Description:
It is a single chain. The longest helix is centred in the N-terminal third of the chain and has 12 residues, at about 45-55. The chain has seven helices and twelve strands. It has about 240 residues and is of the alpha/beta class. α1 (about 45-55) runs parallel beside α2 (about 70-80). It has an eight-stranded mixed beta sheet with strand order 7-6-5-8-9-11-10-12, with helices on both faces. Strands 1-2-3-4 form a four-stranded antiparallel beta sheet, covered by helices on one side. It is globular. The protein starts with a strand and ends in a 5-residue tail after the last strand. The chain has helices at about 45-55, 70-80, 90-100, 115-120, 145-155, 175-185, 220-225, and strands spanning about 5-10, 10-20, 25-30, 30-35, 60-65, 80-85, 105-110, 125-130, 155-165, 190-195, 200-205, 230-235. About 40% of the residues are buried.
Amino acid sequence: MPILKKIKTPFGTIRITKTADGSVSYYQNGCFHSQADKNGVSVCAYIHVIYELVLQSHAQNVLIIGCAGGTLATMLRRMKCKVTVVDINETAFTIARDYFKLPKDVHCVTQDGVVYLRNVQTPYDAIVIDVFDSNNTVPTCFTTPALFQSVRQALSPTGVMVMNVITKEDSDKRAEKIARNAQKADMPIRLYDWPGETDRNTLILGGGVATYSIPSGREPEDVEEDMEGLTCRALKKAR
């Protein structure tokens, strides 16, 4: 695939590629982070799950920690949500705007997401955490009970949190471990997952009381097949 952009940053090398159909992909240190079609719409199933969770929760003011291509922010802004994106790597915002159609009126903040959460003054209706380190795992600082206390305090009373975790295979319980720390912040927890798949996205949903309809039927055709096998389960009580 042709490389559109390759740039070294203090947080790793970012590479942007383009396919014949016009879709673009974002890689950092060789790890895949984002892909969008020629219109800036994500072709990743997990992004569409998060998108629906946020929309169906009726969130209007959304915080996203972790930018990459910014596809979720782009999609939510087009639905009239007010969106703030926080990332420690300022270059991500430039790339998201230049190659992934991130709207100019999405508020972008260059800051450590943990620090930002501690200092939120006006609550958000939804907070999405989609951050990974160089070995494609969620940084430890985003998995602690203290972090989720900050998230809860930064949410409106009916707000929801969604966190993306990579699950290697079914015996990998890191998502459950992280979810239990979120549960300590007095948030009801559900897990959206694709059992049986390897190196898959597992989504931790915290808060919210509504019944979500996912898949919603609004997903693009090229995402529908990848939505198959999606399950939703409550977090089992700790023994």
